[in-house]
Specification:
Two copies of one chain form a homodimer. With about 130 residues, the first copy, chain A, is α+β, with helices and mostly antiparallel strands. Chain A is built from five helices and five strands. The longest helix of chain A has 13 residues. The first copy, chain A, binds a DNA duplex (25 and 25 nucleotides) through helix 3.
DNA sequence: CTGAGTGCAAAGGCTTTGCAAACCA
DNA sequence: TGGTTTGCAAAGCCTTTGCACTCAG
């Protein structure tokens, strides 16, 4: 299995910079539509397809991660330390949680079935403090 | 197929029964398209939209669970004891793993952030024994 | 200059829905 | 007969892509 990654060189364009900056400042994973809506406020000519292509290339280059959340669409965030997300099902607030030894545990459990674990995605939903009170 | 049994035999029931039976015998969560393809072999007139609507109603009634898997589409399986899935990224094989105390751990971790955990979905991908050897 | 990057519009690929015919009680 | 369920086709939606024009290098 060949593992060639991030070979393609991208030009440094205004759109790219704007998107990167936006992603760095984003507080939570956003959908393409959200990203486009927000960034195009400062850059009205920005086309959705451009956002689509740039984010996709960020993903291929390992700059962003895609977070697929049931019923919440594909979302993107800047790559950082391995972590998971907790989503409030009431207000949509998202919080990161560190992986701690979750991964390790899963790996052990998977091993018992003969699988070698390569990747895992954990989706947690619940109620945040505020919504729980109400 | 002529109705020889005394069970409810509305046309609906026939489709429903066929789908329910199929789901019970399925070895792994299947997409609507797979379910339709398979069940319609015995029931050629079965429309995709019928499968769509029945499975959806099964879901609403808590008879099946939807398993959303990144890049593998929404899949459905009969509801059973809480468990998670392990998917071989090479051959697509799927294996169930018991929840053990995974849920409990996640709940604790979530609590530390102030969230009350309501639900969680864990997607595990890796290589099954066979594919790992090769 | 030259090819990567962009905007626009249209094409795809599922998922859903409208509706009349088929059915069952 | 009244209320569902079904099959078919079309509508929606979001994701991708083709193409001509623009721009970074």
């Amino acid at each position: 299995m060949i593992n060639r990654k991030r070979e393609k060189v991208s030009r440094n364009t205004v759109s790219r910079e704007a998107l990167l900056l936006h992603l760095k400042q984003a507080r939570k994973p956003e959908t393409l539509e959200e990203i486009h809506r927000r960034v195009s406020k400062k850059m009205p000519s920005l086309a959705f397809s451009t956002v689509y292509r740039i984010i996709r290339s960020f993903e291929e280059q390992g700059i962003v991660d895609r977070v697929d959340w049931r019923d919440r669409g594909s979302r993107y965030e800047i790559v950082g330390p391995h972590h998971h997300h907790l989503v409030c099902e009431s207000c949509g607030a998202m919080k990161d949680i560190e992986d701690n030894d979750i991964s390790l545990n899963l790996k052990k459990i998977a091993a018992q079935t003969g699988f070698v674990l390569k990747d895992h995605i954990i989706e947690l939903t619940g109620l945040c403090e505020n919504c729980y009170k109400e």
